[in-house]
Amino acid sequence: MSTPRYAFMNDRVVPWEEATVHVASVGFKFGTAVFEGIRGYWNAGREQMYLFRMPEHLQRLVYSQTFMRFEPRVDPGLVEQGVVALLRANEFREDVHIMATAYVSGPGGPGTCTPTGLAITAGPRRDIPWTERGCRVQVSSWQRVPDRAMPMRVKCNANYQNGRLAALQANADGYDTALLLNGSGKVAEGPGMCFFMFRDGRAVTPTTTSDILESITRETVIELLTEAGVEVVERDIDRSELVAADEAFFCGTAWEVTPIVTIDGLPVGAGVVGEQVRTLQQTYFARVRGEVEAGSQWRMPVYERA
Ligand code: PMP
C-alpha cells in the first residue's frame, strides 16, 4: 500500500517514515492519546479542498485533553496550522481523511500526563461500501462502556477497543457492523458512528447522555433535518423499536450518512435504502463538498486561490 509523502509531528511537516513514537511512550503503552478524525472534501470545480467543521473538531480535541489532564495541552491553533500545512505539502486533490492525535509522548506510568506530542496524518478517503446499498447491522452483545467507567464523550484512543470488539463480533457473525446498547439496555451508537431512525415521520436519535460521543455529524444531521422540516427527537431508543423503524442510518465524520437496511437480519422498513436517507445523503454531500453555497460556515478552504 502506498503511503502519503508527508506527516506532521509536533510542530513540523516530516517525511512519512520519520513520523514515529517511542515504544516506551505512555501514549503507546497505555493508549493515553486523544484524537480527531477530520474530513477534507475536494471540490474539483473550484480546485479547492474544504475542511469540514474544523473549529468543532479543535474544540473537542481540547476538551478531550483537558479531561485526560494532558500537560501541556496541544494548542488548537497549532493543530489547525498542522492540518493545513500537511494537506498542502502532500498536494492532495481528492477527498481525504485526517487523523490528529495528541498523546503523552514521554516514558512513564499510567498516571503520567506530560510531555505531550502532536501527530497528524492524512490520506485518501476510502469509500464506504455501504453508502449506496446500505449496511447490515448486528445489535451487539458487547455493552457500550458507561460514562462512569470510560466516558465515550472523551475521544480517547483506548475507548476504541470497546467498539472494536463489537465490530469484530459482527463481522465474524456475517454482519457489516454493530450497534451497541448502553448499560441501561438502550440504543447507544455504532463503533465509530451515531444512530438515527425515522419512525412515523419523525427522526429519532439517542440523547448525548446515552454513553455516546457528542458527534459533530450528529449535530449537522439534526440541523439539516430540521431545516428540511423534519422533526428530530432526542430520546432513549429501545432495542425492540428498531424493528418498527421505517428507515435508519449511521452518521459520523468517516461514516458520513450510511443507510442501514437490516438489523439482526430483520429488514428496516422495506429492507432497502429509503427515500428520506437518500435525500439526506444528497444534502449532506452537497454541503461538505461546497457544491451549494449553504453551509459555507462549516467549510474551511485549505488552498490559497486567487
Ligand atoms: N461515535 C464514535 C464512537 C465515534 O468515534 C465517532 C467518530 N468520531 C462518532 C460517533 C461520530 O462523531 P463525529 O460525527 O464527530 O465524527
Order of helices and strands: EEHEEHHEEHEHEEEEHEEEEHE
The radius of gyration is 19 Å
Categorize the overall geometry. globular
List the bound ligands: 4'-deoxy-4'-aminopyridoxal-5'-phosphate
**How many H/I helices?**
7
Task: State the secondary-structure class.
Answer: alpha+beta
The percent of residues in helical segments reads 25-40%
How many strand elements? 16
What percent of residues are in strands?
25-35%
Terminus-to-terminus distance: 35 Å
Q: Point out poorly predicted stretches.
A: none
Report on the biggest sheet: 9 strands, mixed
Summed over residues and divided by their number, the pLDDT gives a mean of: 97
Plain-language structure description:
With 306 residues, this protein is of the alpha+beta class. The chain contains 7 helices and 16 strands. Helix 2 (54-67) packs across helix 3 (76-90). Helix 6 (216-227) links the parallel strand 11 and strand 12 (232-234). The mean pLDDT is 97. The chain is globular, with a radius of gyration of 19 Å. The strands form 2 sheets. Strands 7, 8, 9, 10, 11, 12, 13, 14 and 15 form a 9-stranded mixed sheet that branches. It has helices at 26-30, 54-67, 76-90, 130-133, 160-172, 216-227, 275-288; strands at 6-9, 12-15, 33-43, 48-52, 96-104, 116-124, 135-143, 177-181, 187-189, 194-199, 202-205, 232-234, 247-252, 256-263, 266-267, 299-301. Residues 37, 152, 189, 192-194, 212-213, 215-218, 252-253 line the site of 4'-deoxy-4'-aminopyridoxal-5'-phosphate (PMP).
